[in-house]
Amino acid sequence: MSRKVLLLTGDGGDGYEVLYAFQRFLEARWEPVIAALARRPLHLVIRDREPGWSTYVERPGHTIDADVAVTAVAAKDFAALLILGGRAPEYLRNDPSVLSLLREFMRQDKWIFAIGHGVQLLTAAGLATGRMLTAHEHVQVEVERAGGTYLSRQAVRDGRLVTGQNWRSHPEFYREIFFCLGEVTRGAGS
Predict the structure, then answer these.
(1) Which residue, among 34, 37, 86, has the nearest Cα to 65 in the 3D structure?
(2) CA–CA separation, 73 and 174 (whole Å)
(3) pLDDT of 74 above 90
């Protein structure tokens, strides 16, 4: 059984979500593999609220290297996929190879996790229809237009799909992720 988890992001990815996920999987003895459109350094951003603003703000953040290009990934090599948020999903959802990869994970009945704006990739790939999901509040309309049901909760599990609202949801979201991954290891006798 593979202990690899694919972390999908790109330039403009939420730095806190990306770095927390990477380190949290390492801590739990899983192998995080960062995928992007190309294998190269990625420029992450810091997103947060500012007093008096009606929306979040973005500032340059850390960089992290993509381990693999999306086109070189096979779902069969991974236990799960985590789609991270930030601004990266805005353009990743327009790439046919990204959408094809998401559908491949779904066809193979792999765990798919998405947080914040990462849920935009689920809607673009047609994977939100008939599902209960949470996401960043600004993604609610996309979820509903894609045939999903938006729930205002920190984390939502619907079958083999788990979604989280934003980085403030990390405790609930990762508790659910590691419960699900525990099912993988218990099923494999690990």
Answers:
(1) 34
(2) 24
(3) yes
* pLDDT surpassing 80 at residue 190: no
Q: Residue 12's closest CA among 63, 68, 73?
A: 63
CA distance 172 to 80: 18
Residues sharing a CB contact under 8 Å with residue 158, sequence separation 6 or more, in sequence order: 131, 132, 133
Return the CATH number of the domain spanning residue range 4-187. 3.40.50.880
- The ranges assigned to domains in the chain are 4-187
Q: What is the pLDDT of residues 155-165, one digit of tens each?
A: 999 999 999 99
